[in-house]
Amino acid sequence: MTRRAETLPNLRAICHQQGLSLVELMIALALSSALILGIFTVYMDSSQTSRMSTGLARIQESARIATDIMARDMRMVGFQGCADPNSVTMNIIADNPPTTDFFETTLRGWEVADGTWADGSEFDGDPIESAAIAGSDVIVVQRGDTMEIELTGNMSANNANIQVAGDDVDLFAQNDIVMISDCEAADLFRISSNPDSGTWAHANNVNTTNRLGQAYQASARIMRFSSTAYFVADTGRDDVRGADIFALYRQTNNLDGTALAPQEIVEGVENLQIEYGERLASGNIRFRPADEVGDMGTVVALRLGMLISHADPVRDDDDAADYSLPGQVITAASGGGTVTHPEDRRLRRTFTTTIMLRNRD
To answer: How many domains does the chain have?
Structure first.
């Protein structure tokens, strides 16, 4: 009896225990839901911020790469060694030369209105003519590109062979175009011999004459002729929503002067706009679009602008903003402007830089 009596209070305690009431359960569920919702909201906001930051970082990196690549070429417009292009006219003896007047063709630009913008130029009928998007610009830069090649001796006459040596000799083949210059003269010719021999002939079977402008000395510089076009085109790829992805392209030339296939260099460039800075008689620089420049020989600076987007749709709403580039405002598709951009959720930014041309006064 004593043992049983001792257990009765415990039984009564067990019997009096109760679970959560319905109200308490609902309050607990509400608090848990609010907490989970808050955590989810913070996660989504952080994820969106991260995507925006990543998109902006990639856009800025694309702008830096595109600007660096183009600026390197554009600063060297008309480079022909230490020969001043303003006072030394290049002597061109190569058959089928890539230019007949180096000073006049070292810098050219086009405002692309349709697929016939290149009529009358070396790009007429070339894939670049149809690939370059309307409303954007095309710029072509010609210059000498220094090679690891040097003369091993003086030429005895202006029709003598050129003796060369260097790491880049084996890059050249017979009939390739070569620039040679010193501070007093510059020539453009084709190699008529086997370049690997170290003896470069310039016979009149691939040149209009076998005589250069002068007999060059060992201090002369050997260069390759470089002609580079920059333009914006459709990559043929689509983003996750099916919108076209554009990119900056570059087309260069082979050593024999023929054009290589265009090469995509930076994804996301939607538009390229360039203004050309003319040196006026007053000494001031006036920036104008290519079709308003009377003489490209007076251009001493370039103002370069790009509209760049990121392929991921990271915006919360459609992009209906206008973007100002040198000489052109890019409006949203519904804005009715001359040049437009898609009203999608891609992140966009503009970048503008001014480039001074080293070989122009």
So the answer is: 1
pTM of the model: 0.86
pLDDT digits (tens, 9 = 90+) for 263-298: 999 999 999 999 999 999 999 999 999 999 989 999
Pairing of strands 323-325, 244-251: unpaired
| Spatial separation of the C-alpha atoms in residues 84 and 6, rounded to whole Å | 115
Note whether 136 and 121 are within 8 A (CB).
no
Domain of 316, in residue numbers: 52-356
For the chain, give the mean pLDDT. 90
Give the tokens for residue 178: 């070569």
**DSSP state at residue 234:** E
The two tokens of residue 205 are: 């079977």
Q: Which amino acid is at 190?
A: R
User: Count H helices, E strands: the chain?
Assistant: 4, 17
Report yes or no: 323 and 306 within 8 Å, Cβ to Cβ.
Answer: no
The pLDDT value recorded for residue 9 is 54
Is 63 exposed, middle or buried, given 0-12, 13-18 or 19+ CB atoms closer than 10 A? Answer: buried
The pair of three-digit structure tokens given for residue 235, joined into one six-digit string: 């990559």
In angstroms, rounded to a whole number, what is the distance separating the alpha carbons of residues 305 and 330?
A: 11
How many CA atoms, within 13 angstroms, populate the side-chain half-sphere of residue 274?
A: 28
Q: What is the pLDDT of residues 150-162, one digit of tens each?
A: 999 899 999 999 9
The total of other beta-carbon atoms located within 10 Å of residue 97's CB is 19
Q: With respect to residue 30, please indicate whether it lies within any of the assigned structural domains.
A: no
Give residue-wise pLDDT tens across range 194-216. 999 999 999 999 999 999 999 99
Within a domain: 44 = no
301 in a domain, yes or no? Answer: yes
* Whether the predicted pLDDT of 337 surpasses 70: yes
Cα 63 from chain centre: 8
Q: Is residue 1 part of a domain?
A: no
Tokens, residue 277: 């800075």
SS3 state of residue 78: coil
Contacts of 199 (CB under 8 A, 6+ apart): 161, 162, 163, 164, 193
pLDDT in tens, 241-256: 899 999 999 999 999 9
